[in-house]
Amino acid sequence: MPKAPTLFDNVMSESDTEYNAQSQWKKKPLEECVTLKSGSTPRRSDEENWGGHLPWISAKSLHQFLIDDAEEYVSKVGAEKSRIVDEDTILVLVRGMRLAKEFPVGITRRPVTFNQDVKAAIPKNGIDPLYLAYALKGQESRALNWTSKTTHGTLRLTTPQLKEIPIPVPSPEEQSRIAKILGTWDRAIEQVDALIEQKRERLHGLRQRLLTGEVRFPEFDKPWVDEEIGSLLKRVYRYVDWDDEATYDLVSIKRDSQGMIFRESLKGSDIKTKTLNTLKEADFVISRMQVVHGATAYVSEEFDGMKASDSYIILVPRDEDRIDTEFFAELSKLPYLYHIAFTSSYGVHIEKMTFNLEWYFESEVHIPPSVEEQRKIVSFLNEVKSEINTLEEKRDALQRQKKGLMQRLLTGAVRTV
User: Fold this and answer.
1) Average model confidence (pLDDT) for the chain?
2) CA distances from 103 to 28, 87, 117, 396 (A)
């Protein structure tokens, strides 16, 4: 049986050809390939400008390559005060701190409006829009090297710089083939992203049902109990013996209960605070400064022995037969635990509230009476998390493959025929 044709049957390396791609492809400055347009922001104090059906793209919305949605929408009135661009328009971030690490580029799948931190590039002279979006993204390193700081410290890519970004321009047919190949990767990435989102929604639903006792495993039938947090957990201190020449691995806790992350390794002489706490596996840790935003975490084996600022509170079980700290960490993701953290804090502004551990300890939680049931719940939730992690690894691998393929296709190292 003959081999089924694939999208890549017409792709060959430069060594397979009798010509050099770079000698045949023209490179044109971006300004010869597009018409640039600037965006704007309708007056926010006029409510009539907002809440409509037209996406308004800003730096925080420009995360997807294929753009059909946004975090904010403008009304028909607001759209008249902004700038509307059609489908197949390329949007580029030209101002913002994200330019320190990435060069956000996307292509619209529907009409949108956009703000002044974004430039619209409307293809001209027969350039394939999707190819051009990929080619512009392929110039990320150059764009990042060209960025500069404004007087306010914000990073920017000036319009003259943007206009000068070189774009390789093969024949229209090859542009279309390159866009088609790279589009295959984008569709695969989108499919995996959709699966990840489905799994996350399932995890959210399972948390709500399993951690409130709404759904239980059949082998457990004893009623859940209300316990004061202070009767279950206690604070511990593990301050280090300071050494200015020693290197300390520091960790931070992300907001919204997303967990613990490795921050950096620093010598003692480079650390501003001279009080650090040592973490141990199975600790439950609270960020005293960010707890109202859900900054709590379970210390996994990966972070055992690392150091945290003294602004972090370390809690351990009073009795390991009554509470499992990993279960409590899962419980801390529920809305009513967020509320407990909020009511255990005081201050005028939410970003500067002070956390009171004693108030927190006096609050009650609703939990299974046995640690066996607590651990069964945690194990089940961890299985779903593992599925999400596997999909995220697959998505990351596809993104790496796409990036490598872009490098080869957009330089002519690999050709389509």
Assistant:
1) 89
2) 19, 21, 12, 18
Number of CB atoms found within 10 A of residue 180's CB: 14
Give the HSE-up count for residue 353: Cα atoms under 13 Å, Cβ half-sphere: 18
The percentage of residues in the chain with a pLDDT greater than 70, rounded to a whole number, is 93
Q: How far is CA 117 from the centre of its chain?
A: 20
Highest mean pLDDT range out of 211-220, 242-251, 402-411? 211-220
Residues 292/285, Cβ–Cβ less than 8 Å: no
Residue type, 284: F
Domains of the chain, with CATH numbers? Answer: 1-13+170-223+368-417 (1.10.287.1120), 26-169 (3.90.220.20), 225-367 (3.90.220.20)
**What letter represents residue 406's amino acid?**
M
Q: Is the pTM of this model over 0.85?
A: no
pLDDT tens, 307-337?
988 889 999 999 999 999 999 999 999 999 9
Predicted pLDDT at 15: 44
Could you tell me if 365 and 226 are in contact, meaning their C-beta atoms sit under 8 angstroms apart? yes
Report in angstroms the alpha-carbon separations of 346 from 233, 288, 289, 341, 415: 22, 12, 11, 10, 63
Question: What is the average per-residue pLDDT within 343-353?
Answer: 83
Rounded Cα distance between 48 and 43, Å, is 9
- The 312-317 sheet, strands edge to edge: 233-236, 312-317, 284-287, 296-298
Nearest to 29 by CA among 141, 108, 142, 107: 142
